[in-house]
Write a structure and sequence with these properties.
It is built from 7 helices and 11 strands. The chain is α+β, with helices and mostly antiparallel strands and 253 residues long. It folds into 2 domains: 109 residues, MutM-like, N-terminal (N-terminal domain of MutM-like DNA repair proteins), CATH 3.20.190.10; 130 residues, Helicase, Ruva Protein, domain 3, CATH 1.10.8. The chain has a 4-stranded antiparallel β-sheet with strand order 1-2-3-9, covered by helices on one side. The chain has a 3-stranded antiparallel β-sheet with strand order 4-8-7, with no helix packed on it. Strands 5-6 form a two-stranded antiparallel ribbon. A hairpin with a 2-residue loop joins strand 10 and strand 11. Helix 4 packs across helix 7 and helix 6 packs across helix 7. The longest helix is centred in the C-terminal third of the chain and has 20 residues. The structure holds a DNA duplex (14 and 14 nucleotides).
Length: 253
DNA sequence: TGCAGTGTTGCTTC
DNA sequence: CGAAGCAACACTGC
């Protein structure tokens, strides 16, 4: 930790990009910072002060009273007086420092699949060719394709009308095409709505995202499916995760 | 009151 | 090898 501090102190940020669910910050010198927010982590940009061991926001607005301030685990202070804070109730987030020349061989990065929004229908379909198993866990597997977690996997399969337990090798061309279109649509919507703040996630400003307001399947157990002639959204367990779907229009293939 | 469940993924086990 | 189980953690809500 002390070593990490010394390595990044007074270094200018050269660039910030995203790869999969990593935030990649290149700094002056030969190092790059990788941040993974995991389940409950989120970076917030603002000003805080420590009062009785608690970080208290000095900026009015959504940051001010949010209980997420309570779970700030790290704070970096910039020379403009602003701070970047990692709030992470469950402490799964990770920050690592990597030598620039080691970035491409980094195991966390090396095995990642493609970015779904950079795929066309041909390359998307091709990915599924060699794949077996249940569609939902595969969609969520970052070595298969990145960026799709439990929420958006449920939303994509709901939109595509595909049952989460469907076997990939049984899917027809038209099914893959529907999954492709739904993936593009849902991920673009997710970006437009700036994420899902049903739980802990916040924007860097402290504001909530809006996707929780348009969720159609995830955490909608017992509600009526909003598609025409929809059933009741049902929850099952796949692997160790819950899956939500409409039993009426998402049939197993 | 306990226990299942929670925007993830990497390691272990079979 | 692939698939599945489970751990890391702290808290909520049924």
């Amino acid at each position: 930790m002390a070593k990490f501090k010394k390595e990044i102190k007074n270094k200018k940020i050269v660039s910030v990009v995203r790869r999969a669910k990593f935030i990649v910050i290149n700094i002056e010198g030969d190092k790059t910072i990788f941040i993974h927010q995991k389940i409950s982590g989120h970076l917030m940009y603002g000003k805080w002060e420590l009062k009785n061991g608690q970080w208290v926001s000095k900026i009015s607005g959504p940051l001010k009273e949010d209980r997420q301030n309570q779970y700030i685990r790290y704070i970096w202070t910039f020379n403009n007086g602003h701070q970047l804070a990692m709030s992470d109730i469950r402490r799964f987030s990770r920050i690592i420092l990597v030598r620039d020349r080691d970035v491409s061989s980094l195991k966390e990065i090396r095995d990642l699949g493609p970015e779904p929004l950079k795929l066309d229908i041909e390359s998307f379909s091709k990915l599924f060719k060699s794949k077996k198993g249940k569609i939902k866990p595969v969609l969520m597997d970052p070595t298969f394709m990145v960026g799709i977690g439990n929420i958006y996997a449920d939303e994509i399969l709901w939109d595509a009308g595909i049952h989460p337990l469907s076997r990939i090798d049984k899917l027809k061309k038209v099914d893959i095409s529907r999954i492709f279109k739904a993936t593009q649509k849902i991920l673009k919507l997710a970006i437009k709505y700036k994420g899902d703040s049903m739980d802990d996630y916040r924007l860097p400003s402290g504001k909530k995202g809006g996707y929780q307001n348009i969720q159609r399947a995830y955490q909608q157990t017992g509600k009526k499916c909003t598609k025409q002639d929809g059933g009741i959204i049902t929850r099952i367990k796949i692997g160790q995760r819950s899956a939500h779907f409409c039993p009426k229009h998402q049939k197993i293939t």
